[in-house]
Amino acid sequence: MDSTLDRDALHAILDFHVEAGVDLALDETPHNRFAETPPPRVPAAETNLPPALNRPVEKAAPPATSSPRPLPGNPALAPEEAVLLAREQAASAPTLEALEDIFGRFDGCALKFSAKNLAFADGNPAGRVMLVGEAPGADEDRIGKPFMGRAGQLLDKMLAAIGLGRDDVYIANVVPWRPPGNRTPTPQEIAICMPFITRQIALAAPEFLVCLGGPSAQNLLNLKDGILRTRGRWSTYTAEDGRAIRALPTLHPAYLLRQPLQKRLGWRDFQSLRRALDGRD
Ligand code: URA
Question: What is the CA radius of gyration of the chain?
Answer without folding.
Answer: 21
